[in-house]
Automatic annotation (TrEMBL):
Residue span(s) of domain Pyruvate flavodoxin/ferredoxin oxidoreductase pyrimidine binding: 14-231
InterPro entries: 2-oxoacid_oxidoreductase, PFOR_II, Pyrv_Fd/Flavodoxin_OxRdtase_N, THDP-binding, Transketo_C/PFOR_II
Protein name in the entry: 3-methyl-2-oxobutanoate dehydrogenase subunit VorB
Gene: vorB
Residues in coiled coil: none
Pfam families (UniProt xref): PFOR_II (PF17147), POR_N (PF01855)
Annotated Pyruvate:ferredoxin oxidoreductase core domain residues: 244-340
Molecular function terms, GO-annotated: oxidoreductase activity
Lineage: Bacteria, Bacillati, Bacillota, Tissierellia, Tissierellales
Keyword annotations: Oxidoreductase
Amino acid sequence: MERKFMKGNEAIAEAAVRAGCKFFAGYPITPQNEIPEYLSWRLREVGGDFVQAESEVSAINMVYGAASSGKPSMTSSSSTGISLKAEGMSYLAQAKLPAVIINVGRCGPGLGGILPAQSDYLFATKASGHGGFKMIVFAPSTVQEAVDLTYKSFDYAYRDRNPVMVLADGVVGIMMESVELPDFKEIKAPDWALSGTENEELKEIIPMCWSGEDLERDNIEMAKMFRRWEENDVQYEEYMLEDAEIVIASYGTSARICKTVIKEARKQGIKIGMLRPITLNPFPYKAFEKLDKSIVRKILIVEMTIPSQMIEDVELGVKGQIEIDTFGRSGGVVISPEEILNKVLEVKEGLK
């Protein structure tokens, strides 16, 4: 493997190229602009195609078209831009087309601002488009993890014939770290792909309006796929949980900051650890359910959003058996270790 010092957004783009990506369409929006900028020249080097579309709506539909030909395709945007792609993502799911969507989140709601935030959790995991479809959603906390998860996303997308989302934020997108880049691989055009030849058999890969029974049949199959994800594809990290009385639940950049807090709190004699979801969907409900209720006295959810968006999933995991508290900053304010530590001390005091 090759090691390089790279900015997060550029590392994501390079990981996509090495995963076999051959088509990208997107539209500029901060804080993910380095992804299309990098791919504008990099894809040409590997025989791929880059299009700066006239809008986010156009971009996702270009991805739809490229994916229908079997060409490994990706788009990226940030929050408000991803909202504009929502209809196209739903069409990708209905047509059973693989694609990778990168969301380098900004603060909101509405237009929000260009600063990093974790305000898109509910959008990504619960309602990223109409029709009730779901995507596997990855949440990296380091540049290396962003590389690894982007690389794997193409495998999952083609395995399931379904879009996959990598949900990062502006901190992961703009920070620079040393990363190991994976080897190059090729994704062969699958049997279902459209070739455009005259003698090609009719393939209904772009459905417009199906009969109720046909669409219901596909919804049933999608539901089976979602259950398979829950059984086989959940990813999470346990950090210093062995004797933890306080368990932080956090993901992405916030979880990275929380590790610093946990180390300092441990020095002060506080028994604290962290359970970090890596897949936000499927969510690690069972990991929360198996927390030792005789030891864990409090769960503290830490996110860069107000109010907490992950709380509903954590509540489902612990089934009301462990008290939950939350702490967050919003509006693009990056949460600080000192603020989290003060909250931890407050929670610790409340346990006496």
